[in-house]
Amino acid sequence: MTILQIDLETYSSIDLKTAGVHRYVEAPDFEILLFGFAFDDDPVTVIDLTAFEDIPKDVMDALRSSTITKTAFNAAFERTAIAKQFGIECDPLQWRCTAVHALALGLPGYLEGVAEVLKLEAQKDAKGKALIKYFSVPCKPTKTNGGRTRNYPHHAPDKWEDYKAYNRQDVVVEREIRRKLKRFPVPAHEWRLWALDQRINDRGVRLDPVLVRQAITCDEQYEARLLQEAREITGLDNPNSLQQLKGWLGDRGLETPDGLSKEYMPVLLDAAPDEETRRVLELRQEMAKTSVDKYNAMTRTICADDRARGLLQFCGANRTWRWAGRLIQVQNLPQNKIEDLALARETLRSGDFEMLELMFGAPPFVLSQLIRTAFIPSSDCRFIISDFSAIEGRVISWLADEEWKLDVFRGHGKIYEATASRMFGIPFETIVKGHENYKYRPFGKIGELACGFQGGPNALAAMDSKKEIDPNDYPRLVKQWRSANPNIVKLWYAAEEAAVKAVREKTIVKLKHGVQYRYEPGVLFADLPSGRSLAYVNPRIKPDPKFDKDGLVFDGMDQVKKKWMSHRTYGGRLVENLVQAIARDCLAESMVRLDAEGYKIVMHVHDETVLDVPIGTGSVEHVTEIMSRPLDWAPGLPLQAAGFECDFYQKD
């Protein structure tokens, strides 16, 4: 099979990082500057389009050919840019993405990081960032540069030659990475799923630009009002200035911590010497709430046809291959609890902000509630939204053969009540509203949410956000939950034992339901029933000082610190990886089935799909039936989906 390796350098006045590639290529000044490529093992060629060099015919033919595989690191960028520049379809089925391949193996998602971790002889050119900044993004007009807003090759010929060398080196490094990773191939069915993911991202989801603009205007007016009130009380030029405000509070006898952060606010409010000081602190607190980050992100990413694209990153969530949010971050949208969302959003759209506040409360709260509703169906369509019920609970019960739970999921599905019943030895039928035993339901719910992956009292405390449980009861409840779920407890220890044994003996250790741990030089794989595998790079066994036993250590990206480092893991975390990965595969299978039935997926969030369905076609019943179908590779796993229709995105 012939492979065409590609890397582009481009220019656009739109910021790629914050607006995304689809908006980026829509800019009137977008253009491909350099086109680096190599067929198979051929030398790398760089075509300088700014010098009016032509892309060779064999390359243009290859771009259109269904028999030649095109590949790039973060291929979504190259696909989109080439399609825009040359007006040709870049079918994702004909492409492969080296970044996705790296992510699938637990490696970093950026070129430089992968090259470093793999210790390649070929490394990314460190000059790149400065060259990209010089040639590929607008520059500030100055007297020195003659007031221009863009640098062209003739402005710095030497730098331009460096840029061409940088482009050439990127092709070299990407090809070396591809060669290095090919001994651990991504399954063919996952590349087909990636192609579907690319079509979903290319399709995008429609936004309501009126609502988005009005939300930003409403926030600006509300913040100006708060600021003006703070000015009138304090007499300060800028009450938003931390230094000025601290001085004013100090004059009132109120000593404040450095940052005036929200965790100190309750104490400061209690210590306020008078009503004016208290009100200023309240205003400060309220101004901190006014955030329209999501609406601003929508404004940056919205394309000419009012659609936002590229919102989901395939294999973006570390280790499990789950999708991650990009740009607008649809994976962490606030929930909506306002009863009449339709009235609230229409009031906002009309610009009657006073009425909006009168009916629904302070703007920060209302605008947060309405973020989801900015996503709307295409013309003459409605959304069908469907999600799995308790997917992780079902998967872990199936994986552990916790039969009583599987019976619950196959029957009434009231897992919180059933768990409470087993934990406290009380009749299931008495855990209903109005009965004194209903007080035990929160214990069942929080236990289910906190304890499934070997969580202890701290996990219960984190999940008990409403503080429904006496903290002194946490240790006892953990024991009761574990006693009620003996097979899940056994699964934690079995998974850890299997992973450690696989690494120590450099062998394969079977778990159950098609899951096994398999050691290959440099990588521990957790093979899943769906036919793909999770990867743990550079696994080794090291003593665990906390528990006086040997434990598994591996290397990976730290999602908080954003750096490559060592991680220690244990049974509960290994099971969490397995469960979340299998749940992801359930969603993936459903997406493939929905697509095959002609449904257009515009978005998916965790275990939920959002479909753009023409009025008069399709149905909620059909969609949920598709998502509830058994999976060939998971016999006995009881899936159940529920859904609804709506005219704007929302939580049911």
From TrEMBL:
This is DNA-directed DNA polymerase. It catalyses: DNA(n) + a 2'-deoxyribonucleoside 5'-triphosphate = DNA(n+1) + diphosphate. It comes from Paenibacillus oleatilyticus. The lineage of its organism: Bacteria, Bacillati, Bacillota, Bacilli, Bacillales. Belongs to the DNA polymerase type-A family. InterPro entries: DNA-dir_DNA_pol_A_palm_dom (IPR001098), DNA/RNA_pol_sf (IPR043502), DNA_polymerase_A (IPR002298), RNaseH-like_sf (IPR012337), RNaseH_sf (IPR036397). SUPFAM superfamilies: DNA/RNA polymerases, Ribonuclease H-like. Its EC number is 2.7.7.7. It comes from the Bacteria. Residues 368-617 form the DNA-directed DNA polymerase family A palm domain. It is an enzyme of class 2 (transferase). The keyword Oxidoreductase does not apply. SMART domains: POLAc. Keywords: DNA replication.
